[in-house]
Amino acid sequence: DVAQAFGGKWKDKKLGSIGVAGCLSFFPTKNLGSFGDGGMVMTNDKTIAEAIDMLRRHGGKDKYDVTLLGHNSRLDTLQASILLQKLKYVDRWNENKRKIAEVYNVQLSGINDLILPIT
């Protein structure tokens, strides 16, 4: 789950794109949060994408063709609209957080035995 690192990179790769699948939750306290709850799975693997799609549609490819136990787990349009608007600002918010973290790093750097996180 890259919710608290949304927009971040590792070795020039966007977090959430490393490996076969990435997850992102949209709880209001996350870096890109909606007003309710929700999430998404990101993948380039067709088999995984089809399985996730079936899980979110009550466990079937078609309306009455249920082949596994699933859920009604679609993000509602209100939450999607909020996320689309907030997406415009997430890079700026992340940059502000980096600047604040740098101030903490400078101010706390003189404390012996304190190991600061990588920013």
UniProtKB/TrEMBL annotation:
A GO biological process held by the record: polysaccharide biosynthetic process
InterPro entries listed in its UniProt record: DegT/StrS_aminotransferase (IPR000653), PyrdxlP-dep_Trfase (IPR015424), PyrdxlP-dep_Trfase_major (IPR015421)
Entry-linked Gene3D superfamilies: Type I PLP-dependent aspartate aminotransferase-like (Major domain) (3.40.640.10)
Matching SUPFAM superfamilies: PLP-dependent transferases
Keywords annotated in UniProt: Pyridoxal phosphate
MF (Gene Ontology): pyridoxal phosphate binding; transaminase activity
Name of the protein this chain belongs to: DegT/DnrJ/EryC1/StrS aminotransferase family protein
Organism of provenance: marine sediment metagenome
